[in-house]
Amino acid sequence: GFRGAGKRAAEGVLQGEVGRRRFASEVHRAIHVDREGVRGFGAAAAYRQLRDTLGVPPERIIIFGHSLGSAIAVELATRVPAAGLILDGALLSGVARGQEIYPWLPVRLIARNRFESNRKIGRLTLPKLFLHARADDVVPLDHGRRLFALAPEPKRLVELAGGHGDAFVVDSAAYFGAIAGFVRELRRGEQPAQGW
After folding, report:
1. For residues 7 and 52, what is the distance between their CA atoms, to the nearest angstrom?
2. Is residue 44 within 8 Å of 78, Cβ to Cβ?
3. Concatenated DSSP letters for 152-181?
4. Which tens digit of pLDDT belongs to each residue from 156-166?
5. Cβ atoms of 43 and 73 closer than 8 Å
6. If you compute the radius of gyration of the chain from its CA atoms, what whole number of angstroms results?
7. Which residue, among 10, 54, 51, has the nearest Cα to 32 in the 3D structure?
8. Which end of the chain has fewer CB atoms at under 10 Å, N or C?
9. pTM above 0.70?
10. What tens digit of pLDDT does each residue of 116-145 get?
11. Which of 39, 89, 98 is nearest to 65 (CA)?
């Protein structure tokens, strides 16, 4: 269940003791932020579950978001303390992507959920790792690059082989290597710098 898998994933990521495939599986099942927030939980509820119920201190929690979930992760990071933030296939904003897909619609006027990471990322001083597949046809790489440019240091952008939903498999060494490096720097108490 969430309680066991979530704690193992959170501790494993931060201690670097969980294998690559097990890590991906457990994070995806337990704490992955996606289109629904967090599977079975809201993002804030999942954070509280880790912190309050499982006793994981904020300095050992890394917020992770993929695709549209990246906007939810950015929002959560503006509200709670955490060790770091990992964004995979992040979009600049829901409105910007919607306007690209539907150029004939007044998306800016009709969008209820704007998912404006571009307006929030500049407030985040925690370490940030951006992962983005070069062949992403759902959220183009340009979104990740532009969001990265708006983010303050410390930050790192890793461009990967593969597409929107498979870069962690197609380019697993780079994907999990970047995450492992990010976690190592956080564990040392150092601020990851661009190019670490």
Report:
1. 12
2. no
3. PSSEEEEEESS-TTTHHHHTHHHHHHHHHH
4. 999 999 999 99
5. yes
6. 16
7. 10
8. N
9. yes
10. 999 999 999 999 999 999 999 999 999 999
11. 89
Mapped onto helix, strand or coil, the DSSP state of residue 54 is: coil
Query: HSE on the CB side for 194, CA within 13 Å?
Result: 7
Q: What is the spatial distance between Cα 167 and Cα 126, in angstroms, rounded to a whole number?
A: 25
- How do strand 33-34 and strand 128-133 relate by DSSP bridges? unpaired
Give yes or no for a contact between 152 and 126, defined as CB atoms under 8 angstroms apart: no
**In terms of residues, how long is the chain?**
196
Closest CA to 53 of 73, 30, 34: 30
Tell me which residue has tokens 């979930």: 69
179 token code pair: 């995450």
CA distances from 11 to 5, 17, 21, 88, 89 (A): 10, 8, 15, 20, 24
Q: What is the dihedral of CA 193, 59, 80, 155, to 10 degrees?
A: 10
Read off the DSSP letter of residue 49. Answer: I
